[in-house]
Amino acid sequence: MMAPTAQQVDCPPVPRPVQPDTARRIEELGRIILAYSEVTERLQKSHDQLTQTVVSLSNELGEKNRQLERSNRLAALGEMAAGLAHEIRNPLGGIQLYASMLRKDLAGREDSLSIVRKISDGVKRVEALVGQVLQFSREIAVNLRDTDLAEIVSQSVELAQCRFTDRGVTCDVAGPVSLPVKADALMLGQAIVNLLSNAAEACEAGATVRLEYGAPADGEARQFRIAVRDEGSGIPANILDRIFNPFFTTKDEGTGLGLSIVHRIVEAHDGTITAANDPAGGARFEIRV
Asked: Per-residue DSSP letters for 76-124?
């Protein structure tokens, strides 16, 4: 057998050396691709952050619109209620006057006097309602001063203690020993007492009302937040958006003005109040100022 000649031997092609210019261009292209990838990643992160911000702002705008609508509705109802209250108050004075005159004429006639007393008691209840209506309809001007929220909460719990005792309910308070704020201590205290009283009435004997307060977190408020939660049956979903309306109440007795006045006090502090059913059970009211 004849040995293969040099022309017949299969030799691998000899790689051509990479020119310096080509190597430099490849390196530059790699850097460009890497930089482009980094820019793309940053743009994607910025897009995701902007999307989250837009969603958050949309939700916040929706909530602000609902609050504005509720405030406008309350203002219109307040004006109407004030007009009715003035119209009712005038004849009430006459009824009370005639009842007092009748009481004198019926001196010694106990059966008839008991009827007159019922008339007078009814007039007094209506006058009290008219007074609450006028209080609701008046513009609330807060007197903002440096005060301690911890002291306001402590005094409010003490004022509501009789309601807790009557219902057999305890109150658990959690918050800092001291929290300097700028607020109207009297009005803010009135709002807290009202929320505590409502929470006590929503509970059965042996339940606990929980009040938490403290400095805001994550920009949710400017100065402070207060949350009151009861262990009652919660707020029916079909009335959740109406509980701050004046004259709306689910109680057999009551004017339905308590939460409306609380809403106006919080609003006068440039704050917000929300109501919801707590996942752990019961209703939760939260004030943010």
From this structure: HHHHHHHHHHHHHHHHHHHHHHHHHHHHHHTTT-HHHHHHHHHHHHHHH
Please state the three-class secondary structure of 2-25 as a single string. CCCCHHHCCCCCCCCCCCHHHHHH
Beta partners for residue 282, in sequence order? none
Integer Cα distance of 123 and 178 in angstroms? 45
Q: Which of 221, 227, 217 is nearest to 182 (CA)?
A: 221
Cα end-to-end distance, the chain, whole Å: 104
Per the CB < 8 A criterion, the answer to whether 74 and 263 are in contact is: yes
CA gap 136, 150 in Å, rounded? 27
Domains of the chain: 21-138 (no CATH), 145-288 (3.30.565.10)
Annotate 65-100 with b (16+ C-beta within 10 A) or e (fewer). Answer: eebeebeeebeebbeebeeebeeeeeeeeeebeebe
CA distance 68 to 64: 6
In angstroms, rounded to a whole number, what is the distance separating the alpha carbons of residues 9 and 171?
100
Measured CA to CA, the distance from residue 14 to residue 23 in angstroms comes to 18
pLDDT in tens, 228-256: 999 998 988 888 888 887 777 777 666 67
Q: Residue 165's closest CA among 210, 212, 211, 205?
A: 205
Q: Which of 50-54, 75-79, 218-222 has the highest mean pLDDT?
A: 50-54
